[in-house]
Batch of 2 targets.
Target 1
Amino acid sequence: MSFSLLNFLELLGALGFFIYGMKVMSEGIQKVAGSKMRSILSVMTSNRFLGVFTGFLITGLLQSSSATTVMVVSFVNAGLLTLVESVGVVMGANIGTTITAWLISIFGFKVKIAAVALPIIAIGFPLMFSNRGNLKSWAEVIIGFALLFLGLNALKESVPDLRQNPEILEFLSGYANMGMLSLLTFIAVGTILTLVVQSSSAAMALTLVMCNEGWIPFEMAAAMVLGENIGTTITANLAAMIGNVHAKRAARAHFIFNVFGVVWMFFIFRFFLSGIDSFMLSNYGVSPLNRDDFTSIPIALSLFHTSFNIINVLLLIGFTPIIAKVAERMVPSRGDVDEETKLEYIGGGILATPELSILEAKKEIKKFGKIADRMFGFVGELIENKDRKTFEEAMNRIQKYEDITDKMEIEIADYLTRVAQGELSEELSVRIRSMISMINDLERIGDICYQMSKSIERKNDQNVTFSSAQNEGLSRIFKNINDAFETMTNNINEGFGQVNIRQAELNELTINETRDKLRSEHLMRVSKSEHSFESGLFYSDLFMSCEKIGDHIFNINEAVVGLK
């Protein structure tokens, strides 16, 4: 038998065909049900068993555990899932990915879906020209499904018929009789194969095809499946590389779970295969260990894959908190992230769907709002601070925060701009515009706080002091601003369009009334010469700046509601 370079390229092309079909279908489903999957993941994870079911359901829909785990990493990155909740979802994803194997085993080898693939594409093709984004996404799902099975058919035809070439089986048999070393070898092969194709489903499909054509025996294929369980964790870890510490921990938890499963299976591998063989003999009358009959191997391999993952989940679901703690130790905290200029929740590589990307940006804006609030608090401390050294440290801190707000505005705006370049509904477009308005106002608050700090510094340098009445007036308007910040933070947490703006309007009205009273009182005291002209200039500058901050806070509230 000859297997030329051209044959190898055909095999590689067929694998690419299969992966591309799976990618098109997966992305289409994410677009069709992106917001629904977001709701499922954010609601159905409080209980670890519900988390497992959620992971199973999402992976069953997407036909890709890698897509689910990358999505989970993204949700952890955005703060929508805790680490413990994410472990349960990943466990369910491992079970959900076995559905692909069953679809291929039951339909791919017995039902000629490839024969109806072109008519399926004919149904989906007109939908691609629809003006409705949802119909275009359904077209991707339909066409992707057809391409997936066309790719599977191409894979079957590209793999040489090794039943007529026993010398190849003899060659492989040499690697199958080395005991534990043989098992480790094929676990490594499965891991490398999954790393190369970046999809456990594609690697599983290739393994099933090789078994069905008699390329490799059942034992080797089962060992490769174990390796594929390790290889699939790499995708999530790659996605988490540019994520925050929480995303990295979620990816490590996935790795820990899968590797532990392979470890315990390694020691009982022969006994487990004997159990699968007994089940197949009693129910189907065929043995997957019989190298003269390959017809039972796809079903037996799917059974092995499913039973292994279910048992692994049952063994480890009670240890979810421990897995989370081990992941935390593997990826220690980098300290106070608020002191970092790097964005905490969004990164350059995780742009899964517009809905998810906007959620991540919202989380970052919430952090931005807290930084602005904290910066204003530092200004209040400056007024009360009399110690020179402590005052200088506070000034340096405000300068650092001002730099942070400038960088955050640029980075979040750049991220939202990249999201806006995709296909968006009108609602999502409005939300992005509102978010850009919010970060502009937050950055302006940072600028005003910095200007106030410089004004206080000049006051101290000129040995100007405030009277008790001036200090009391500043305390009143500072309290008004703090109340407004609290309302703003609550509104950002509530979400776009779900806020009653009445409280924000009351805060804005109170700030304006306080500003007017302070100005009136100030002019009266100046006329009576109750305080110096210099202190009056600094005093009026500070309370007027507070009123400007109040205006920007109200603008942010309007943007959250969707009015700005």
Target 2
Amino acid sequence: MNSEHVTRLTAALALVLCLCASGGTFGQTVTTVASPNGRVTVDFRLDAGGVPLYAIRLDGKPVLRESRLGLVRDDADFSKGLRLVSASRSEAVRDRYEILTAKRRVNLYRASRRIFRLAVASGQRMNIVFQVSDDGAAFRYFFPGAGGGVRRLTEEVSSFHFLPGTRAWLQPMSVAKSGWEKVNPAYEEFYEKDIPAGTPSPTGAGWVYPALFRSGDAWLLLSETGLGRNYCATRLRHESPGGEYRVGFPDPRETIKGGPVNPESRLPWLTPWRVIVVGSLKTVAESTLGIDLADKPRRAVSPSPEPGKASWSWPLLGDEQTEFDVQKRFIDYAAEMGWRYCLIDALWDKQIGYEKVKVLIDYARGKGVRILLWYNSAGDWNTSPQTPRGLMLTHESRIREFGRLKAMGVAGLKVDFFGGDGQSVINYYLEIIEDAAPYGFLLNFHGATLPRGWQRTYPHLMTTEAVRGLEFATFTQKDADEEPTHAAMLPFTRNVFDPMDFTPVVLDRLPRTERRTSSAFELALSVLFTSGIQHYAEIPEGMAKAPPYVRDFLKGVPSVWDDTKFLDGRPGGFVALARRGGGRWYVAGINGEGAEKRLALDLRELRARGPGTLIADGEGGNPSFRRETVRVGPDMKFEVVLPPRGGFVLTFD
């Protein structure tokens, strides 16, 4: 038997094993879509009842069992009784783009695309588009046609059916209208770690994206991207019997002004992408798939958005310190640190006023610092009282306010307290983004949904919260206790694709709780977490206690990353990443666990030359550091011992 026969036999056997593992039946035509390198494959078929199904293999081995596809529209059911009208040939997809708010500045996306054109008995059509890249697979739906009024989806049946024994790392969706002043959902829960796939959500409201799974040696990350005005943001449903997770629509209460929750649109209608990263943990941590598939920029933004770092008084000083003299001091702080921005948070309109804010803006301009202002997005969907409130609600009020702010010299806005994931809420986000663009305002959304690639489509969207950020560690000791393991989850989940305003780095102390992380752990977060604008929580008094070399590090750490490499880690346990920016490699690691950890990091991919500078944990009180010069041997291995909940940063030219 020659090698070609062996290859064909191996492929046929793999397909048989895949069908058997997934419960598939024979006699149905299976069409395969393969990634450019052939390692990731998607098998698509219709079963005897006309139900569309797909399964995913990695290196010929099943990693996702046969899972459902389809949508239920108010005028037709596109989840069963379908026939295949035609299937396109495999088409190569290639895209190269630059982005300033992600883990890698220049990205090249290559994939194979196939389109399956389906019809129900009445003749109405739905296409399923698959794109398979070397780091995973994605699919979306398209309804062709025109006219006939607005159509509405009652259900999406897309599912992800995991193999027995799969483990999961998932964040529960918070219940609508729960939490402080009824501001949920805001993607601010702790992750359930290493649980059996199929475990029901403890809140009963489902699970948020990105959702991480391990099946044998393979890791999978689920998310969505390409979300526009014609859809709601989705989540994974509460129940997942047999490890089959289905896409769910938002709670009916997640609406603004009584607008739609479930998706509504006229035809033609193209839905968001369902994204499945497949590979090693390194594949997941380095993937840009959720950005690769996002819609390209809609319009040029002038002036070009500038990522940067920001001083910010609120997390450690609170609402009462949003007053003139304190904010002037934080402008001086930003100038001293060489940071581009200073954020003036809630209640500035009442405690400072527009006229004195204009004085601060002019003062900051003279120091090379630009001012960001906070706004409350809320109307009647929650009871959050902070002001300015209600000025974002309509196009007319936004334009009036934006004109005033432009004349004052404001650089950008932080908009807080949104109302969920319904289609009307998604439209509200996009209306704010689109109205802000002509004014050149940078945007940051808090109390918000996952941005799902919006930072590519709208480059002036610099970051969003959508995370249980550092502020929570200042509220309760339980939150402070959880921060180490929580921070070690985020490079594998929330921050994989989208910029994240965690507001990291407290080197000294928290105001009401005892910090559980070391000072070097906190310093490492400045590298491990990516955000278009990185708001540092430390205040001038705490920063002054740090050694000069630590302050110099925070002055110089890049705001734009050229590349990112995963070195080692375990979700919720520890993580070490290398990022390149400004012509240097920055290696950072944290230990989220209560026991000492010894790491032996392979730095061959970095091709770093010369000695490196290590900043790690010292001995004594906060902030406590030590600095040393290290040399990596010919084997390019770097060994470091991390104390419990400790960290380090290492720089190489």
